[in-house]
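[step 3/7] fold_predict: job queued, chain A
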Amino acid sequence: MTVRSMRSAPPRRDSVGRRAGLTIVGAPSAPAAPAFAAPAAPALDEATIARHTVAAREFYAARRRRHKHLPADLFGEPTWDILLDLYVAGRENRRVPTTSACIGAHVPPTTALRWLRILEARGLVEREDDGRDGRRTFVHLSPAGLAAMDATLALMCQRMEDIADKILTPTAED
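[step 4/7] structure written:
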């Protein structure tokens, strides 16, 4: 077959209708890992919960501020936005409709829904039907998702304190 005839030949398709042999990087079609099982988290005191909630809200806001100076399409991490949003909402005892979680991810709705399905399959997010409106569902962090976010935020807060100490503590050379 010549190059000319290869260009005119229709692309081969797999059983799902995608072009055969193509791999789309960064666009998962199904969860690749089993459900996530976070280690049992110790009970957190109110001050720690408040600290983690403030940190999660600030991490989410910082991602929006970054877009004022750098093109948004350079940074794609909708799952982190979803997890931060659900963490804050959960700690504030707010219910999050699926559509709101999609909007908060700052990606097209189909992309956000795909990531919500992946987070649910991994055991980090749970869906709950709205008892009053059969068309609506809510999403929230699962107990494993909440424990994982608490552990992640604890590490991030500690690291931020370490960085602040390095910046604010004078060295012997000063």
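[step 5/7] annotate
The radius of gyration is 21 Å.
Residues 1-11, 13-28 have pLDDT under 50 and may be disordered.
exit 0
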